Automatic annotation (TrEMBL):
It comes from Planomonospora corallina. Belongs to the ABC transporter superfamily. It holds the Pfam family ABC_tran. GO terms for molecular function: ATP binding. It is found in: Cell membrane. Keywords: Antibiotic resistance, ATP-binding, Nucleotide-binding, Transport. This is ATP-binding cassette domain-containing protein. Residues 5-228 form the ABC transporter domain. It is a peripheral membrane protein.
Length: 304
């Protein structure tokens, strides 16, 4: 199986500043790959290298089996940039029709179909589009020619929740058709429902590549439990994965690493009247990986 993306030692420095260093990455046909990291981590640099917008300092990349410098590969890619500049008096529908012609044609009705799904008004001049509507036009131009490979940089910015769900449905359809998606984001929730695997990048380096299920197990959650009567602290002490435990009468709060099984079994001995769980925090997942890497480095230095 030929990888859709394969990089070896891919590196980009901007003067002395590291944009990306020694990226070894493989994205397989038919998968949705989430590329996660805080702003400035190296995600957009990676995408620009794959699109041949910038050239690497060293290393190499192959996209759809060929060198990114080959102009023919661009027609096989759909791309949504993180910063989308749409200006002027031209109506959004006219702009999309023009792009469709440049790309060799889009099947009849395709632009209208996508606009209806995303609730995009294509009669508005591009210079007057709101941020959310600009994002919708950007998504339409990325999806409309049904490319083999979609690269989406921060795709849901400015979209309301219902439109976000429709967008995620479109991504699932791309995967179901055997095509491939690279979705860059700093928001875990944006990719966790559709991604098969995720790569985490930090300060220009790939920290980890994980299956989504494995990443969720590493996630840190904040939990609150409320009971119908005060509960004894000793019933919840020394539970695996439970940290920062605080019990105040009939209320319990804690931080949970990984699976909640032990905590739920302990709580089931009492009457729970309310439970709330904060979504996993991406920064905390990063910190978990960083501390693991630092610990491994300390062990290696000690062994040496």
């Amino acid at each position: 199986m030929t990888a859709v993306v394969k990089t070896e030692g891919l590196t980009k420095f901007y003067g002395r500043r590291r944009g990306l260093e020694d990226l070894d990455l493989e994205i397989l046909p038919g998968e949705v790959f989430g590329y996660l990291g805080p702003n400035g981590a190296g995600k957009t640099t990676t995408i620009r290298l794959l699109l041949d917008v910038i050239r690497p300092t060293r290393g190499r990349a192959r996209v759809l089996g060929t060198d990114p410098r080959d102009p023919r590969v661009r027609a096989r890619i759909g791309y949504l940039p993180g910063e989308l500049a749409l200006e002027g008096r031209e109506r959004a529908g006219e702009y999309l029709a023009f792009l469709g012609g440049v790309r060799g044609g889009v099947r009849p009705g395709r632009i209208t179909e996508l606009a209806e799904r995303l609730e995009a008004d294509l009669s508005v001049p591009m210079g007057k589009l709101s941020k959310g509507n600009k994002q919708k036009v950007g998504l339409i131009q990325a999806f409309m020619h049904e490319p083999e490979f979609l690269i989406l940089d921060e795709p849901t910015g400015g979209l309301d929740p219902l439109v976000q769900q429709e967008f995620l449905a479109m991504v699932r359809e791309v995967r179901a058709s055997g095509r491939t998606v690279l979705m860059s984001s700093h928001v875990l929730a944006e990719v966790e429902d559709v991604a098969d695997r995720v790569g985490i990048v930090r300060a220009g380096r790939l920290v980890a590549v994980e299956e989504v299920a494995a990443l969720k197990e590493k996630a840190v959650r904040r939990l609150e439990l409320h009971f119908d009567a005060p509960v004894p602290a000793e019933a919840f002490e020394d539970l695996p994965g439970v940290r920062d435990l605080r019990i105040n009468g009939a209320s319990l709060s804690c931080t949970l690493d990984g699976r909640p099984d032990a905590l739920i079994k302990a709580a089931a001995r009492f009457t729970v009247v309310h439970l709330s769980s904060a979504e996993p925090d991406l920064e905390e997942i990063f910190l978990a990986y960083y501390s693991e890497n630092d610990e491994e480095g300390r062990h290696a230095r000690a062994a040496g």
